[in-house]
Specification:
Elements lengths: L8 H28 L2 H27 L14 H30 L8 H32 L4 H7 L3 H30 L3 H30 L5 H13 L3 E13 L2 E10 L5 H18 L3 E8 L5 H11 L12
Parallel strand pairs: 2-3
Antiparallel strand pairs: 1-2
Helix pairs in contact: 1-2, 1-4, 1-6, 2-3, 2-6, 2-7, 3-7, 4-5, 4-6, 6-7
Amino acid sequence: MPDEERPGGESTLTVVIALVINLAIAVMKLVAGLVSGSAAMLSEAAHSIADTFTELFLLTALRRSDRPADRRHPFGYGKERYFWSLLAAVSIFASGALFAFYEGFRTVFGAPSEQESPLLAYIVLALAFVLESVSWTQAIRQTRREAAAENRSIQEYLSRSDDTTAKTVLYEDSAALVGLVIAFLGVLLHQITGSNLPDGIASLLIGLLLAFVAYLLGRTNATLLIGRQADPVLVFAVRDRLAEAPEVEAVVDLLTMTTGTDSVLLCARLDFDDALGAADLERACVRIDGELRAEFHELNEIFLEPVPRTDPDVRAKVLARYGRELHPGGGTGP
């Protein structure tokens, strides 16, 4: 089957493109930074080096998270994608932002220095912008396609997406393009004024930009590692489908957790019709399980637990979590 139809296929393509481009750009920026002595160029070199390490972490995430479930990990390895993506965010901060801050402060408060070969810096920045645009175009193309498939805007998709690899590439490529503009302005103003100050400030701004991207990605992956609820659209749809089952009197509690990209664990506590016998209850659970899996392909593990809606302990847990009951007439959703 084509790569884009395989699980993680397009994400892998997006990451590989970004890896090759960032490695080439890192070498060019490093040479230009060493020759010109520009702090902004050296910061951009560190930026691209950090991005290169990020892509390596993301490729590891894609490879290891696709392993099937086994005895030690019965729910699979999907969350490993978030662990490696979190390390990618740390890499962006540690390798890129901290070095950019160091170069910025050194340049602003250090001894004045004359910039060498600014033309080389301009050429490298222009080439880097073109190459980064190629990677960014692939990332935004994948994001738009996946957002359209879910009938969402790009902003809504990014806020709810559980595919952190594509999101990481898009964020870091967007930051790279902005960083290149900042570096260009730093080199240009240094050349015009002869002062180190614009170059140092540009380096500090690049550091702030990288720190902000690292924070966004770190927060997203930390939330998914801890155990984030599934997409509310899915949760509401599952709740309504369970409530429509003829054997179900009420949906008492509904727990979901994202266990990987397009992978959700569901635990539903249901108040079944008291007239059902044990065999009827078993058949109802099997049928409901099958119907849910057929309609909602993200559900890879489903647990259905019969409970009375009047049970005080269960009711207290639901009220503590959602502030209200979940059965029809209880409100708008969990």
